[in-house]
Amino acid sequence: MRIATFLSLAGIGALTFAACPGFAGEPGEIPPPKDEPRVIDAGPPPSDAIVLFDGKDLSRWVSQKDSGPARWEVKEGAATVNGSGGIATRDGYGDCQLHIEWATPAVVKGSGQGRGNSGVYLSGRYEVQVLDSYENKTYFHGQAGAIYKQYAPLVNACRKPGEWQSYDIIYHVPRFDADGKLQKPGTVTVLQNGVLIQDNVEIMGSTGPSGAPKYRAHPLKQPIALQDHGNPVRYRNIWIREL
């Protein structure tokens, strides 16, 4: 009995030592990190997130037309595109995790790119397409969840018109040297409604309506922008974590 107890305690002691920071493992093992991961409240939103829109006002946003106050209509917890122009965050952000919820109009009007069109612009220039792609055909790298005119989504995960949808975006900003030469392309991962639709793809350059995408050097931290494409798309619950 005493031998069994001793062996049991010895085992617990070994586990305790193994869990201690700085404990030397077997040769070739990766040593434990020196810094303990921060403890956060997972939320949502996570406790270390910056809430960009909580359904009350657009005080963290400005109009892209004149840098004045954002003029989209805020009602019932959502901000609706209303033809007053795109909006952008007052502050710039670099590498980030971005959560955003959106809904296209419940009353279907138009087709293709004319139906529930908007967009999320990372660094103000790389677009993740927002579109009503529920039973609505268009070019594949222009449907909802596309990195516009660059990558089609892996699957079409769209809900019906009028229903709320979500994007969770992991974005790493492209890097440029002091002379403006591209050193490392930007990358983006997107989950739509919890489904992976873009898997760490390399951004090819700025979004444009036509022509080949091209990079133009820009600072690390730039605003996030939402597009006014003339359709009353709604947004809510927008938050960002800087990485």
Structural features, described:
With 243 residues, the chain is mainly beta. It has a single domain, classed as Sandwich (Jelly Rolls). Helices cover 7% and strands 30% of the residues. The chain has 1 helix and 15 strands. The strands form 3 sheets. Strands 1, 3, 4, 6, 9, 12, 13 and 15 form an 8-stranded antiparallel β-sheet that branches. The chain starts with a helix and ends with a strand. Residues 1-19 have low confidence and may be disordered.
Number of domains: 1
**Strands, count:** 15
The CATH architecture designation is Sandwich
Output the CATH class name.
Answer: Mainly Beta
Outline the secondary-structure elements.
Layout: H1 2-19, E1 50-53, E2 61-63, E3 73-75, E4 78-80, E5 87-89, E6 96-103, E7 118-122, E8 126-130, E9 165-172, E10 175-176, E11 182-184, E12 187-192, E13 195-202, E14 225-226, E15 234-242
Q: Can you summarize this structure?
A:
The protein is mostly beta strands. The protein has one helix at 2-19; strands at 50-53, 61-63, 73-75, 78-80, 87-89, 96-103, 118-122, 126-130, 165-172, 175-176, 182-184, 187-192, 195-202, 225-226, 234-242. The chain has a single domain (41-242), classed as Exo-inulinase, domain 1 (Jelly Rolls, Sandwich), CATH 2.60.120.560.
